[in-house]
Design goal:
By secondary structure, the chain is α+β, with helices and mostly antiparallel strands. It has 16 helices and 14 strands. The chain has a 4-stranded mixed sheet with strand order 1-4-3-2, with helices on one face. The protein has a 3-stranded antiparallel sheet with strand order 7-8-9. Strands 12-13-14 form a 3-stranded antiparallel sheet. The longest helix has 29 residues. It is globular. The protein starts with 5 loop residues before the first strand and ends with a helix.
């Protein structure tokens, strides 16, 4: 049975915006995202909350004379960095915010890039943008500081980590991100749907399906369009294949970080074969440019369907063997167990989603709470663990790979006939829409504001890493410095997705 997402959008004044956040907090809604956009020269600040099947979006038009908006970070701590992002991009100050440090601006912007030619008067910042970021120190006997990054030894994205340490134990971790900011929201402004969907698929390369699907659903919501059933099934198939590929790679990296090189080699072989199959059937290893508003691009023939079914059966058998090896390997389990604990209480406070949240007792999964076809008839089994450590995150990853292989088989075996896409139909006037997707890391939200001729007036994409990065700072203190790579990999968050 389909459980439809119930979306409520509220236009509010400043006090109403604050009151909504208090009510959402009291009613135990989770914060999904906070963002801003320009509408007919007025800045609007949005906050999105979710509880079960209910999505509530509050939007506040910032009076031009005030140039501030109410901060909700005292109720929802995860809002802080998103509010700082608004300030960097637009110049609008979150009133009564406890942290006014720049977030995306590394001291290179002469004025807020989305605000126009000159900075607003209120952007005479309390903490002016500077390349010298004001990390919060820890004082005490024997405390020393270890800076790591932003350039790392491996071929990974840039991000800076500042450790406050006594001996080998971490007292505090603070992150500095923003190095991969690409200006996606500026690039979207005035672009066509054709260009915009390509940009959506490149927000975070490992989540190209999830972001393209969220964007497409937002456009379809704005225009009231429906996707053919076969197209919906194929979208779900692509999403599960993206989930499988990423978990395979991370499971191998986690084994390697804990000292089992054999695990890395075996999982990389499996992932490589899986990506090559993607290239053969869908034309791209990472499945880029496969989803567009109205449906999907590639319609696999019966031979390709049979190939994916047999591929999944063989992969499932190998995964179960590797799961047994890892679970029975004493050295690995010693490194995994009790390392990087993120308690269920902390996960609930931050409103965590995705496999990280589910490894800390949270049951959030849009595929089960708001199932779109085919998950309205193919039930998704949700894995939950309360341990909150590396072991729990590894266990949830294994569970999800095995479950996604099961879902892939059922999707392919019940794939309906018919069209895989429909044109988005006649263009209308201005319209807004929102799309939500359970990506492999967690909830992806996309909001679009369409104008005449299907031009993008404004859009916002929220990657789950935005919510999950602060949680990593909670999981590391109390552990050894040498355990950070293992804990970090157990999260494996997107720098590019967070930076936008």
């Amino acid at each position: 049975m389909t459980t439809t997402l119930a979306t409520t959008v509220l236009d509010l004044d400043g006090p109403g915006y604050e009151n909504l956040s208090r009510r959402m907090h009291e009613e135990q809604y989770r914060l999904v995202s906070v963002w801003a956009s320009e509408d007919h020269r007025n800045i609007r600040v949005f906050s999105a909350y979710m509880n079960g099947v209910n999505l509530v979006i509050g939007r506040f038009s910032v009076p031009g004379t005030e140039q501030t908006f109410p901060s909700i970070a005292s109720l929802f701590p995860a809002a802080s960095r998103m509010e700082r992002t608004i300030r960097d991009l637009w110049g609008w100050r979150p009133a009564n915010a406890h942290d006014l440090r720049p977030w995306l601006d590394h001291g290179l912007w002469k004025h807020p890039p989305l605000s126009g030619e000159s900075p607003p008067a209120s952007n005479s910042p309390d903490t002016p943008p500077s390349a010298d970021y004001a990390f919060i120190p820890v004082e005490g006997v024997g405390v020393h500081e270890i800076p790591v990054g932003p350039v790392h030894a491996g071929l990974i994205e840039p991000g800076h980590f500042r450790f406050q340490v006594v001996g080998e134990k971490v007292l505090r971790l603070e992150e500095r991100l923003g190095y991969t900011h690409k200006g996606i929201e500026r690039l979207w402004q005035g672009s066509s749907l054709e260009k915009a969907i390509k940009l959506a698929g490149r927000i975070s390369g490992d989540t190209t399906v999830g972001h393209a699907l969220a964007f497409s659903r937002a456009v379809e919501s704005a225009r009231g369009h429906r996707v053919p059933l076969r197209g919906q099934y194929l979208r779900a198939l692509l999403l599960e294949r993206e989930r499988i590929a990423n978990h395979l790679g991370d499971l191998g990296a986690l084994a390697n970080d804990a000292g089992l090189g054999f695990g890395l080699s075996q999982f990389i072989i499996l992932k490589e074969g899986f990506l090559r199959q993607n290239r053969t059937i869908f034309g791209h290893r990472l499945l880029m440019d496969q989803i567009l508003p109205g449906g999907v691009v590639t319609n696999p023939d019966p031979e390709s369907v049979a190939t994916m079914i047999s591929e999944g059966e063989a992969l499932l058998e190998q995964i179960r063997v590797l799961e047994t090896i890892i679970n029975e390997h004493g050295g690995l389990q010693d490194r995994f167990f009790g390392t990087g604990i993120l308690t269920p209480e902390a996960a609930q406070e931050w409103g965590l989603c995705g496999f990280v949240g589910r490894a800390s007792g949270q049951k959030t999964d849009l595929r089960t709470s708001c199932p779109e076809p085919p998950f309205d008839t193919i039930a998704v089994n949700r894995g939950v663990d309360t341990g909150g450590d590396v072991r729990a995150r590894v266990a949830i990853r294994f569970f999800e790979v095995i479950e996604s292989l099961r879902l892939q088989r059922l999707i392919l075996e019940s794939l309906p006939e018919g069209a895989i896409s429909e044109t988005t139909g006649t263009t209308g006037g201005e319209g807004e829409g929102v799309g939500l997707v359970e990506g492999w890391r967690g909830e992806i939200l996309c909001w679009v504001h369409l104008g005449e001729g299907e031009k993008i007036l404004a859009a916002h994409a929220h990657d789950p890493s935005t919510i999950l990065w602060p949680a990593l700072e909670w999981a590391v203190p109390g552990n050894l410095v040498a355990d950070f790579p293992l804990i970090n990999k157990s999260f494996n968050l997107s720098y590019s997705g967070q930076d936008g």
